[in-house]
Specification:
By secondary structure, this protein is of the alpha+beta class. The protein is built from four helices and seven strands. The chain is globular.
């Protein structure tokens, strides 16, 4: 058997032994992909974050990745209660305040646009930063951003890598 024929035979055998269908191959090539039907409570559990009872407009997404998954959680809550919520996240360093939107182009791997929201980096008057390193369990990192919606309410954005 020639070397070319041998290579072709080995390739055919490996392809046949993969056991996958064309549909399975399509699913593997669609990574990253978004999980459907995920709830804010489920994402909160993966992030080890308790969503405050008074939180409204709760939104969440879970993106399957090649090695790590992306997690998004956003909700609105009374601005007066944000400080207590952030304290429970136990940031290792004080969160920073940014008065202006970032001027550079922002294209995160797990965009909040998936939730119908602007990226926190594109907003002015945002407080945020990392809140765990290392995080518990499978969670590798978690960042928070807080932006005032109006005089009484703020939106909390959480982005995690699992």
């Amino acid at each position: 058997m020639s070397a070319g024929a041998l290579c072709l035979a080995v390739f055919a055998a490996l392809t046949a032994c993969s056991g996958g269908t064309a549909r399975d191959a399509d699913a593997r090539t669609r990574v990253p992909s978004w999980k459907s039907g995920v709830t804010p409570s489920e994402v909160g559990e993966l992030m080890h974050v308790s969503i405050p009872d008074e939180a409204t407009d709760r939104r969440a997404a879970h993106q399957n990745g090649f090695q790590d998954d992306g997690l998004l959680l956003a909700f609105t809550m009374p601005t007066a209660r944000v400080g207590a919520f952030l304290t429970r996240l136990a940031p290792e360093q004080p969160l920073t305040h940014r008065a202006e939107a970032l001027t550079r182009s922002v294209k995160p791997m797990t965009p909040f646009a998936r939730l119908g929201l602007k990226e926190p980096e594109t907003l002015a008057d945002v407080r945020g930063g990392p809140v765990c390193a290392p995080c518990a369990g499978e969670l590798n990192s978690l960042e928070v951003a807080v932006h005032p919606v109006d005089a009484r309410r703020s939106r909390v954005y959480l982005r995690g890598v699992d």
